[in-house]
Specification:
Elements (H helix, E strand, L loop, with lengths): L10 E6 L10 E6 L17 H6 L20 H9 L3 H5 L2 H15 L3 E3 L15 E4 L3 E4 L6 H5 L6 H4 L1 H14 L4 E7 L1 H10 L7 H9 L1 H24 L4 E5 L8 H7 L1 H14 L5 E4 L7 H5 L5 E3 L6 H8 L4 E6 L8 H15 L4 E5 L9 H13 L3
Parallel strand pairs: 3-6, 6-7, 7-8, 8-9, 9-10, 10-11
Antiparallel strand pairs: 1-2, 4-5
């Protein structure tokens, strides 16, 4: 195993012994260091979670790690809850269940980020947009938006009134995790939310949202503004109730050409970031957009603290294009978790090496896939947490 790196670091890999459990197995410590010198752990701010220190550019001993969809169907404990509560909205809108599911990966893997179990569409009901999330079908918007009159019916979101369970869950999570990891909240970006409510759910071609954008841009801008205002309030609400960082998902913005991204997504993302920074200047904001290789430089223009890269972008190239003033997150291919443990280990080291020292949150380039072996997720965390710069 090579220890070559962009910046010299010591790598420690815990290898589980055979016939041992994930929680109490004996481990064999393998250290490889450049020049035969073992690098001592660097001092960090003890009162703050590692993830926050890394994002802020402080001296950290290793990259923090958490995984998108780390609480999900690959875990047996989550499957048990699904059998008892088959409705996704029931699982995601009940304080006790939300807390239990959010803490499942924390109790097993001890990631450096504990993300709220929820969905980016959760605010829609509070904006007079009825929806459901149906097993096997995904999101369904009962009355898709198509006209100016439809947009007029969309109300401004009041998280305190519409989703009090989110605030309650975040408060409990912060107490449970107790600063040993960062509690993460998240929201959907205006264009992505608009895509769902105009398309009526998920889409492959995005013809309805593009028809609206290119034939009635004023109508779409009106809808996007309502989402921008509402998501600004939602981020502030999450931060006030325990979220120590918030990730913004603009999953469908990469369906736009660069010039259209600059009109229909970028201004609203920037508006959200600027407004949140006025009231919560120290709250790290992470932006994720899948398939964003063609938009990386534009994502940085939003003013977020972290750009999360998907696996189609080489990490070293992404670093060069974004510069080292902004933190990066990612970006191991989720499919790697179906490989051997050696293969997983190599990909983790490759990603960390290319990201370089500091301002990097180790993550996948997308969420954990259904069917991923839980033991491979455990291995990912073990390898990641044993790395030393």
């Amino acid at each position: 195993m090579s220890c070559t790196s962009v910046s010299s670091f010591t790598t420690s890999l815990f290898v589980p012994s055979k016939n041992s459990s994930l929680s109490n197995h004996k481990r064999r410590l393998i250290q490889c260091s450049l020049g035969g010198t073992v690098v001592e752990p660097k001092a960090t701010t003890a009162s703050e979670p590692l993830l926050l220190n890394a994002v802020r550019g402080q001296d950290v001993e290793r990259p923090p790690v958490w995984l998108m969809r780390q609480a999900g169907r690959y875990m047996k404990s989550y499957q048990i809850i699904c059998e008892k509560y088959p409705s996704f909205r029931e699982r995601s809108e009940n304080v006790d269940i939300v807390v239990e599911i959010s803490l499942q990966p924390w109790n097993v893997f001890q990631p450096d980020g504990v993300i709220l179990f929820s969905d980016i569409l959760t605010p829609l009901s509070g904006m007079n947009i009825p929806f459901d999330i149906v097993k096997g079908k995904g999101p369904i918007i009962f009355d898709p938006i198509a006209t100016a009159a439809d947009v007029d019916q969309v109300t401004e979101f009041s998280p305190e009134e519409s989703v009090p369970y989110v605030g309650e869950a975040l408060t409990i999570l912060q107490k449970e995790v107790d600063n040993k990891a960062a509690v993460l909240g998240f929201v959907g970006a205006p264009f992505t939310l608009a895509s769902y409510v105009v398309e009526g759910g998920s889409s492959k071609n995005f013809t309805k949202i593009k028809r609206l954008a290119f034939s009635q841009p004023k109508v779409l801008h009106s809808l996007l503004q309502k989402f921008a205002t509402s998501m600004t309030k939602y981020i502030r609400y999450q931060a006030d109730n325990g979220a120590q960082a918030v990730q913004i998902f603009d999953s469908w913005a990469t369906e736009l050409s660069p010039v259209d991204f600059e009109e229909f997504s970028l201004p609203y993302l920037k508006q959200i970031v600027d407004a949140v920074k006025q009231t919560h200047p120290d709250l790290p904001l992470i932006l994720y957009a899948s398939g964003s290789g063609g938009l990386l430089e534009r994502l940085a223009l939003t003013g977020v603290d972290v750009v999360s890269l998907d696996w189609t972008v080489d990490m070293a190239e992404g670093r060069r294009r974004l510069g080292h003033d902004i933190a990066v997150q990612g970006n191991v291919d989720p499919g790697v978790l179906f490989g051997s443990k050696e293969f997983i280990t190599n990909r983790i080291h490759d990603t960390v090496r290319k990201a370089g020292k500091g301002k990097h949150i180790l993550n996948l380039g997308h969420g954990i896939k259904v069917g991923t072996p839980e033991e491979n997720v455990a291995h990912f965390f073990e390898v990641a947490k044993a790395i030393r710069y």
